[in-house]
């Protein structure tokens, strides 16, 4: 199996050396956002030092540099996902990408009573945008182990289903959904499919040329890139059929007071000055991932997930939520007689950064009968020492709170 050298990896993330309340930092909140390697920090610094200007507009040298770096980032992202550059639209992230599909693709096709089929483990960003445009949201049930009830999901596909939307990897439980099978089933019914890849792309290979989805989205900040940048991928025919929702500079071909015409895809969906440095940092983060190797990352995280699962099983009164067989590096749990927020505050005092709360999946929390969980989420720079620090701090929290 491919291996990686943890010391070398960690040396590239300066923030990991930051003392927290005088303790060593065990950063286990990677599903919320990841830390940034020197390669990304340098790319941002170099852009602002040597190439900063607005893109697409001027003939001067800096504008040419900014444009070539921004468009080069688009090429890089397209190559990473094995797709065409025209299919990558830069957005503020997964949330904005899903909202674009809701507003520009679904809404014009929607009749009263039409449904969007999702799952019971979706992030709020894959629930609320459909409600905002007036679709009826139908959610397939989640089984006790946190996996999707696939038979029930199939049974919910109906003539009213206008779109199917599914998270590839659950941010709350780590469940990996069988998206290839789900896309095949949707195709058999001629229903377009959106895949929310926010939690998937830093942890496993995604090939958009063969996946068969209609829409795919992700966020740079979950792949060791900057916040405020992400992408939408769509089939070209969908982009052509969609009227943009954001109007302004760069997205037009011609403008008059009577009538305007749109620029070509992807620019048609990128009104205004984009997050230029965000895109450049995003591309640098994917370069970094490629250099380490996605297979090595996946193998490392899988090993650590098993180690962490076993370590937490030793803690009295701890209940893991989400034990699906196909699972990514997320440990979500509750502890008897201890509120997750109180546990989180005690862990913080010992340098352990975890998320406590509903993780933007309130219906899923409801499904498991808990208001919140404690979530430790793994990334490539985590090691057994982080898990051990978590387990020790959890034992302390149990002593103090029970
Ligand atoms: N979907 C999933 C599964 C997520 O984990 C997140 C981020 N927590 C989002 C969507 C939203 O991503 P962003 O906040 O970057 O728009």
TrEMBL record:
Residues 27-390 form the Aminotransferase class V domain. It catalyses: (sulfur carrier)-H + L-cysteine = (sulfur carrier)-SH + L-alanine. Keywords: Lyase, Pyridoxal phosphate, Transferase. Pfam families: Aminotran_5. Signal peptide: none annotated. Its EC number is 2.8.1.7. It is an enzyme of class 2 (transferase). One of its GO terms (molecular function) is cysteine desulfurase activity. GO terms for biological process: cysteine metabolic process. The keyword Lyase applies. It comes from the Bacteria. Its cofactor is pyridoxal 5'-phosphate. Belongs to the class-V pyridoxal-phosphate-dependent aminotransferase family. Csd subfamily. PANTHER family: CYSTEINE DESULFURASE (PTHR43586), CYSTEINE DESULFURASE 1, CHLOROPLASTIC (PTHR43586:SF8). This is cysteine desulfurase. It comes from Hydrocarboniphaga daqingensis.
């Amino acid at each position: 199996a491919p291996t990686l050298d943890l010391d070398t990896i960690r040396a590239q993330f300066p923030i990991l050396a930051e003392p927290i309340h005088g303790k060593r930092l065990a950063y286990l909140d990677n599903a919320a956002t990841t830390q940034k390697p020197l390669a990304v920090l340098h790319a941002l610094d170099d852009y602002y030092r040597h190439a900063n200007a607005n893109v697409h507009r001027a003939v001067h040298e800096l504008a040419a540099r900014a444009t070539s770096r921004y468009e080069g980032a688009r090429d890089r992202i397209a190559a990473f996902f094995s797709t065409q550059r025209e299919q990558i639209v830069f957005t503020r992230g997964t949330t904005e990408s899903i909202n674009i599909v809701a507003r520009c693709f679904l809404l014009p096709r929607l009749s009263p009573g039409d449904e969007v089929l999702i799952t019971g483990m979706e992030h709020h960003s894959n629930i609320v945008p459909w409600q905002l445009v007036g679709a009826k949201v139908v959610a397939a049930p989640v089984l006790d182990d946190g996996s999707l009830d696939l038979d029930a999901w199939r049974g919910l596909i109906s003539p009213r289903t206008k779109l199917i939307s599914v998270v590839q990897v659950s941010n709350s439980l780590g469940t990996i959904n069988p998206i290839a099978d789900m896309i095949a089933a949707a195709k058999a019914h001629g229903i377009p499919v959106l895949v929310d890849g926010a939690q998937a792309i830093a942890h496993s290979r995604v090939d958009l040329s063969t996946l068969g989805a209609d829409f795919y989205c992700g966020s740079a900040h979950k792949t060791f890139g900057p916040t405020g940048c992400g992408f939408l991928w769509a089939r070209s025919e969908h982009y052509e059929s969609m009227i943009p929702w954001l109007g302004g500079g760069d997205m037009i071909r011609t403008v008059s007071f009577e009538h305007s015409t749109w620029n070509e895809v992807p620019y048609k969906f990128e009104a205004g000055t984009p997050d230029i440095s965000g895109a450049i940092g995003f591309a640098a983060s994917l370069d970094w991932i490629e250099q380490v190797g996605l297979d090595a990352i996946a193998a490392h995280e899988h090993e650590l997930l098993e180690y962490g699962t076993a370590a937490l099983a030793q803690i009295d009164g701890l209940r893991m939520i989400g034990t699906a067989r196909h699972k990514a590096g997320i440990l979500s749990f509750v502890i008897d007689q201890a509120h997750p927020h109180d546990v989180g505050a005690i862990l913080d005092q010992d340098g352990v950064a975890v998320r406590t709360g509903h993780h933007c999946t309130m219906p899923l929390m409801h499904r498991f009968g808990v208001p919140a969980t404690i979530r430790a989420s793994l990334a490539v720079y985590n090691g057994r020492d982080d898990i051990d620090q978590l387990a020790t701090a959890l034992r302390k929290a149990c002593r103090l709170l029970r």
